[in-house]
Each structure stands twice: as structure tokens, then as C-alpha cells.
Amino acid sequence: MIEVHDVRKQFGAVQALGGVSFTARDGQITALLGPNGAGKTTLLRTLVGLLKRDHGSILVGGVDPEKDPMAVRRNIGFLTDQFGLYERLTTREYLNYFGELNGMERAALRLRIAEVAELLGMDDILERTTKGFSQGQRIKVALARTLLHRPRHLLLDEPSRGLDVMSTRALRTALAALREDGCCVIMATHVMQEVVHLCEDVIVIANGHTVAQGSPEELCRRTGIADLEDAFVSLVGTEEGIA
Amino acid sequence: MRSRFTIVFLKELREMLRERRMLGFLLIASLMYPLLIGFIMHQMIEKNTRTEREGIELTVIGGARAPTLMSQLRERSVTVTESAQMDEAAIGELLHSKKAVAVLRLSDAFVDNYQAMRPARLELWFDSSTESNTQRRDLEEILQAYSNNIASARLLAHGVSPAALSPIQVQRYDTGTNASRSAMVIGGIIGILFLPAFFLNMSAAVDCTAGERERRSLEVLMAQPATTWELVGGKWLAASVPSVFGVTLVLVLAHAILRWLPLEEIGLSWNMGWGELLLVCLVTVPLSLLSSALFVALAMNARTFKEAQTTASFVTIVPLIPGFAVSFLELKTAQWMYLVPMLSNQTLIKELAKTGDIGVLPFVLTFLCSLIPALLLVAFASWRMKSEKYVLAV
Asked: What was the ipTM of the complex prediction?
């Protein structure tokens, strides 16, 4: 469970987060919707303790990332907007590295890599160096890295970008499996269809504020608009959000 | 389970070893240096000992016209080779081939002029572009002495004291020995032995910091459950490996070469045993650690690989400055020199080569004067990586 209450963050004169509150529950996939520049990246970075908040409280699985960032990170799978691959290493070496950094034993790691590779359908690229990988292959490797240490919490920044239909399906299966396991998944995305298909809960942020939280149906009901995309635009509040 | 520090270290090392071509190039570049030193020193010894071994080679044309001069030349250890008449081109070729230092040609009119007490012409042919100028001067001195002797005899025959011709007498004393000249040379040569510590690790240090940042993988790494000290420390140690390895190799090779060369021929000494060399290698390890820490701390703040490389290459020059300043100002070895990284290593090996025994303190100081700033720099880099400003710029 991730609980965020009235988190604010200021960089110089710029108010990046002006009061974000939400609760992302275990066993649910929570969509994080917001126009570009709404503060999603800052929020995610604050959740893993890379940035310190100015105000408010954050609990990730009951732990404050500011007080014990290491404990929080051990329990988080973080997929950033950058994949962070090492071109000179093979996929397996890459996964070994991050697995070991997360305290996994070699033997357990070998089993887990096989598991994750099957889940994401990436057996064929395990022994290749990641140089020259396609966008889809890259994101698979990065996703595998996020899932590797069986984190209870997943922060995924646009995990489906650049994936073909087959890979998107594989991703959906993976996310559903995580939900079954009772993980708490927060997924930033711009694809409304995905939200409708996958997510139980939606957080809408704009301009560093939480504008709304609820299931897709609730959001539609609240705005009185049947289409989630239109409801989102109406919630974000006009042109400034669309721009 | 391995510590995260070790995990990062091993991963960076593995990545570095994948760049085989670059590593090979660096290795060859650093091995070139001791070999070059060996070659230059060998040439120097050759040159300095040639005169004593071989004497002065002189080719004479028409030597029979001045038998006294010939015997005087031979007395002064000049090897005189008689030759038939030669034209200008043939003489030039002979000198160019370095078979003779000079050619002495006596003209047909020599005997007539000599007997008539007119200045009898001798032609001395030489090639000033060769390195035999000292030998040529020796020859000219012999000729001058011969001339003076005859002048004195002629004056005596006329009842005039030859002393009247020498109102003053110059006696030359040259205190410059080969040894003192070469000591400067060897001092300069030794100074550069440690330079690989500053260029073998540069690309590795820049690649794992600025490079990682440019490739956008640093944020992911920083979000892992590892402290910035573990990340920076692992990268720092991995970057130091090629430097430590390279400098040790260069020192061992240079030592082997310098021991093998007959340095005493040019008044030099290399009084070091393998045990002492091992100690020098050991106290030089922190120098590599320092340079890696410096590059890591600098490069992690650069936005791109290129920017980092430019700054880092500039920094490579800095450690050479104290050494040059000391030899330029001709400062005597003093205790404070062991407190300046790089200069301390240079001074250490210079003193060891000279005297062989300098006690423990210089070793300890050399070791610590690099290690302490290295650790401080790594601490600074770790602190810097933790700062929000840095996270935002990643």
C-alpha cells in the first residue's frame, strides 16, 4: 500500500507538487493520469526517496522513504522513462547486476530470471548484449529488471510505450499476475484504453495537484461524461492541460 | 552475499574489460615509455663511451709530408689512416658515413712552404652536423699544440724566449661531469614513469560516471537499494584497476631495463633492488586511486562524456607541474616534497636510485599523501550524488 498525503515540492520558484494526496491499494493497479509536466516524474522520484518532499507524508508499505530509503527501494520496482540498459552487458548479466544489488542470491536469481523471461516472452534475448535492441526488447529488459526481486510495489512510468500488440498483451498478463499476487502497482500512462482494461483505480494529477481519484466508472459518473478520455480532459481543466 | 560495493565494482570491471581494443591501446601506449627510456639511455651510454673505446678516427691525405705531426697525432691516441688523393665529394661521403671524424689534407706545397717558413697550409675537413664536435676540438688542439711547438723552436733558434709569445696562460677547469649532466636527464625521465596513473583510468572513470549519465542509466541505478557511497566507491575502485596495473607494469619494466643498462658508464646509479621496487609500486597504488577519484568527482558533474573528457585531460597535466617546477628551480630534495602527490613518488624513486636507503618515512608519507585526498574526493562525490540538484540533472 502506498499512502500519500498532501505532498508538496518546490524547486526554486517552481511549484512542482502543490498538494498530492492518494492511496494506492494492494492487489490493485492504479493508473496515474496527468498531462506532461503535471509532476508525475517528481512524484515517482519522491516515492523512491531520490527527492525529499517539502511538506506532507508518504508511506510505502508503512515505511517513510525519507527515513529509510533503502528499505523502501528494496520493496519497489521502478521503471523510469529511461530504460537504463548497459550496452556492453548481456540481458542476463544486466539482470544479475540489479538482482544482486537488490540482495538476491545467485541460485535464486537464476530461477527468477527464467521465470521473468517466460512471463515477458524474452528467452531469445537473454544471452545477447543489449546493444541494438529494439524499443520493445529494451522495455522488456527494463520491465524484467523491475519485476526481478518480487517487489511489493511497482512504479511504472509508461510501461507500454513502443510495444507491439503481442508484447502489450504479455505486459498485461504480467500486470494481472502481479495483481493476483497482491502487489500494489502504480502505472503512469497516456493510453486511456489501457486504463479502462487494466486499472481499478485512477489518480488524476494536474499542475502538481491531485484533481481526482476513483475507479474509471466513478470518474465518468462524477464528470457526467461517458468517455474516460473526455472525462480526463474535463478534470484536468481545459487547454492548459492539453497543451 | 557479496556487498553492494563489490557488486558495483565487479560490474564496472566487467564492462570495462569488454572494451578490449581501448585497453590494448592504453597498455601499448604505456609500455612504449619504458622501452623508449631504455633506448634513449642506451644511446646516451653508447655516445659517452665511444671516444674512450675507439679513440679518434682521422683520415690523412699526404701524411708522409709531415711525419712528426703524424707521430704526435698517434701519441695522442688518434687512429691515423693514410689515404690516397680524394676529391671534395669523396671526402664529404667519407665524413657522412662517419668512418672518420675528420679528414686532414696536406697540399703538395706543404713541404716547400714549411721549409721556407711560410705558413704551411693544412686542410681540416669535418662535418659539423654530426655528433663528433668534441673529438674535432681535440684534433684542433693537437694541431695547435704542434704549431706552437714549432714556433717555439724557431724562436729559440733566433735567440728569443718562446715565453714572450704567451703573455697569459689559460688553464681550464670543467667541474661539470657526465654524472651531473645525466642526473638531470634521468630525473626528468623518472618523473614521467608515474604518468600512466593519470591516463590509463581516465576513459574508465569518465565512462562509468558522465557516460552512464549520458546514456541515461544513472537514475535507475540511483533508485536501487544502494547508498551513493557504494555506487561511487565501486566505480572508483574499478576505474583505478587499469591505472594500478599499468603503473606497476611500467615501473617493473623500467626497473628491469635500468638495472640491465651499464649506467655507471655515464656516472649514474640505479641502486634499487626488487624488494624496494615492490615497495615503490605499493606506495604508488594510492596515486592511481587519487587520480581515479579526481576523474570520478569531476566527470560525474559533466553533462556529457565529451565535456568530462575535456576537463579530465586538462587535469592530467596538473600532476606534472610540481615535478617540473622542482627541477626548473633546482630545488634540493626536502621533506615537504613527500607531501605532494606525484612529486612525492618522483622524489622517492629519485632518492632511492641515488642512495638506495632513505628510511621508512618517505614511503609512509608518499602512501598517505595520495590516499587521504583520494578518500576525501570519493566522500565528496558520494555526497554530491546524494544531493537533489544532482538527481534533478540526471
From this structure: 0.90
